[in-house]
Specification:
With about 260 residues, this protein is an alpha/beta fold. The chain has helices at about 5-15, 30-45, 60-70, 85-100, 135-150, 160-170, 180-190, 210-220, 235-240, 240-250, and strands spanning about 20-25, 50-55, 75-80, 105-110, 125-130, 155-160, 195-200, 225-230, 255-260. A nine-stranded mixed sheet has the order 2-1-3-4-9-8-5-6-7, sandwiched between helices.
Length: about 260
């Protein structure tokens, strides 16, 4: 293979989050400050370039953020949390959700108040929402890469929602998967160099008037610094993207959303 072709093939095989810059845009708001703080923390664990710019707080700031990511050929776009009051969430929260749907790269959402928190000197634990689907396997691969960058341990969180799983597969509703078996298989697949453990959420979580996103978020309250989650196929997002979308509303930690891989 000619050297130029080999170089191009190597670049194509390298995940873009390992090469593209970490990009953050701020409009000077509290959420923007949270995003900038998280971006600096992520950049501190990586050799990638950090691009931080002011994004005007116009009617559609999400367009500015997406445009910034496209212009810089970003590997990661960091944004502020949509956490606001009930009315504000519908208006301001739409920025993070719009970015989530239109970003050309992965998106990391900073939790509310991140900039003012007393934080650990490094990312120590990475969580991943896992259910055995193609999307969650992609999220697991990304979580492993983040663990290698930061030296963090990995914590898998398995919460089976039979209704979502049945619709998600585009098939007739099937009985719930064996969550312990799903967790065991996932842990076996993790690279031996990464310290990994996991948990299956109690099967009665749905009887406590919680959504699956709220149950996963609660599991992150102890010591997870970054939660990694996958996304659904673009055409399915209106129906099935609500779990990841809800996670960025309720998770107490940063949420890294991995884009759907074509063909997955």
């Amino acid at each position: 293979m000619p050297a130029t072709e080999k170089k191009a093939a190597t670049k194509a095989a390298t995940p873009h989050y390992e090469t593209g810059p970490i990009v953050v845009g701020s409009d000077g708001s509290a959420g923007g400050d949270d995003a900038v703080a998280l971006a600096h923390d992520l950049a501190g664990t990586s050799s990638r370039r950090l691009v931080a710019e002011k994004v005007p707080g116009v009617v559609a700031p999400s367009l500015g953020l997406v445009g910034l990511a496209e212009r810089e050929d970003a590997g990661t776009l960091v944004v502020g949390s949509p956490h606001r009051g009930p009315v504000g969430r519908a208006l301001l929260g739409s920025v993070a959700h719009h970015v989530l749907h239109h970003s050309p790269c992965e998106v990391v959402v900073a939790p509310r108040g991140y900039a003012g928190r007393e934080r650990r000197p490094r990312i120590a634990k990475v969580g991943v929402a896992f259910d055995g689907t193609a999307e969650s396997r992609t999220a697991l691969h990304r979580a492993e890469a983040l663990c290698r960058d930061t030296g963090a341990s990995l914590h898998l969180i398995v919460a089976e929602d039979p209704v979502v799983a049945g619709i998600e597969g585009g098939e007739e509703l099937n009985p719930p998967a064996d969550a312990p078996a799903v967790l065991k298989a996932a842990l076996v697949s993790v690279a031996p160099s990464i310290q990994a453990d996991g948990e299956c959420l109690s099967p009665d979580w749905h009887n406590a008037h919680k959504s699956v996103a709220e149950a996963i978020a609660e599991a992150c309250e102890r010591d997870v610094d970054v939660l990694v989650a996958g996304t659904r196929k673009p055409l399915d997002r209106l129906l099935m993207g609500s779990i990841t979308g809800h996670l960025i509303d309720v998770a107490p930690c940063a949420v890294l959303v991995v884009p759907h891989e074509e063909g997955a």
